[in-house]
Amino acid sequence: MGAYILRRLLLVIPTLLGIMIINFALIQFVPGGPIEQIIARLEGNGDVFESFAGGGSEVIESGDSDYIGARGLPANFIEELEREFGFDKPPLERFLTMMWDYMRFDFGESYFRNISVVDLVLEKMPVSITLGLWSTLIAYLVSIPLGIRKAVRDGSPFDTWTSGAIIVGYAIPGFLFAILLIVLFAGGSYWRIFPLRGLTSDNWEDLSLIGKALDYFWHITLPVLASTISAFATLTLLTKNSFLDEIKKQYVMTAKAKGLPERKVLYGHVFRNAMLIVISGFPALFIGVFFGGSLIIETLFSLDGLGRLGYEAAVARDYPVVFGTLFTFSLIGLVVGILTDLTYVLIDPRIDFEGRG
């Protein structure tokens, strides 16, 4: 197993490099870079994208570069901007410099905020930890037992009614469910049971330890429910179908014929085989919920997390934030994939990745 893990760790390097190369190459063709953003603000246009939409600005040559909306700005000023942002160097040199810094986990500073990328991500991380951790935990704790129960009672009224509820939950987008929760329970039109802003109250520091915990759970209830709904539905049906496939196999019939209790058959024999497909989806679920965040849900509940950070960085062309977070989250996703393989072995020791290699 050690050799397999070593091979997977070595594959992380070319995979991560490929992700960064593709995204860096694509970003070279995207209009409205950080210098154009600054020029648009200095010229009073507000947003550089207004120029692309036909705002009337012309392409003015400054030095060796063309910028939209650069009318009236001296060429040496724009050249200074290029040097400050590093755009006076060829793309290949910029990419190699960036990757060398990233290998030392030096992600630089945000172009438009006087703060390092690491500090900025750490500042937004509590929101993503809250949504990702609790959403994933609730989804697995509820969906797996429910899916097993539905598989055992397949075709029963319980299975029919719960399937209907799950399909409805899956069909409702997370942001629409969030609006429904706000209208019903956050003072929208009916009851004002839960708060609508932030992770904690203003007087959180003055509360006792128990009071802080209760206040925290009071604030996160609605956003966590809104971000869990789709993962809950998918995971429940996946668990049910996986267990149904295993229950119909010969080894289960043999175990039942030997007189083994149903619980022992399910959790002693079927569980470790059926859960493999469920665990295989964990990296995508973990990365998607934990790090991807939800821009709309964060906006609806006034949460400043990684979802909003990523959106704002992409719109402002804040490349250090965009590439720094891309590098970090891709690396974590690849490592989580390796941990998933280790979980396979933990659940079913018969799996031998090293032997397959």
UniProtKB/TrEMBL annotation:
It is a multi-pass membrane protein. The chain crosses the membrane at residues 9-30, 127-148, 160-186, 216-239, 274-301, 321-347. Residues 125-344 form the ABC transmembrane type-1 domain. It is found in: Cell inner membrane; Cell membrane. One of its GO terms (biological process) is microcin transport. It comes from the Bacteria. It holds the Pfam family BPD_transp_1. Keywords: Cell inner membrane, Cell membrane, Membrane, Transmembrane, Transmembrane helix, Transport. GO terms for cellular component: plasma membrane. InterPro entries: MetI-like, MetI-like_sf. The keyword Transmembrane applies. Belongs to the binding-protein-dependent transport system permease family. This is Microcin C ABC transporter permease YejB. It comes from Pelagovum pacificum.
